[in-house]
Amino acid sequence: MSTLATRISAWLDTRERLAPYAVIPLRLIVGFGFLAHGLAKWSKGPELFAGILHGTGVPLPHLMAWITIATELTVGIAFLLGAFVALLSIPAIILLAIAIFTVHLPYGFSSIKLISVNNGKAQFGPPGYECSLLYIACIITLALTAPKPWSVDKYRSLHSRHHKSLND
Question: How far apart are CA 107 and CA 120, in angstroms?
């Protein structure tokens, strides 16, 4: 076998071995993103976020602020752990869709709008909905894939399979 064919074969073997781990970076970045956003809102005070929601016309802004913060913290922690990913994808996507339609849509697609550079520091305008769509795409990918290694969901699936085989 030629050297090139050997290298291609080795690469394909490596890719196949690593495939179960491919979505772990997605899960971690989505989880960290949700957790960071929830902690930022929490640390600045839910009342401040409720004021922002009120200013954008969101009904029941105090209740929605608490629901948003609780959802972001819960989803963030769960995704980091790989726990209940498919189930928690639903409220995560709903939250992102609401953010798109109530906040980001008027600013267009792009999340990065360079306005100027002052003293070597970039100044950016309000973000569009690009980042929220990327989060939604990642979440859909995670929800549609089977539980992967290094996740609570994988442990739960192995445990339930083992428990089922014992009962059969």
Answer: 25
Candidates 146, 137, 25, 45; CA nearest to 86 is 146
b/e burial code for range 55-75 (CB count within 10 A of at least 16 → b): eeebeebeebbbebbebbbbb
Q: Backbone phi, then psi, for 122, in 5-degree steps?
A: -75, 140
Query: What is the pLDDT, as a whole number, of residue 166?
Result: 58
For 49-81, write each residue's pLDDT tens digit. Answer: 999 999 988 889 999 999 999 999 999 999 999
The span from the CA of 117 to the CA of 13, in Å, is 48
Q: Dig out the tokens for 69 from the structure.
A: 């913060």
CA distance 82 to 95: 19
- CA–CA distance, 38 with 93 (Å, rounded to integer): 15
How confident is the prediction for the chain on average, in pLDDT?
91
Q: CA-CA distance, 154 to 161, in Å (whole number)?
A: 11
Contacts of 148 (CB under 8 A, 6+ apart): 20, 21, 22, 23, 24, 27, 82, 154
pTM: predicted TM-score of the whole model, two decimal places:
0.84
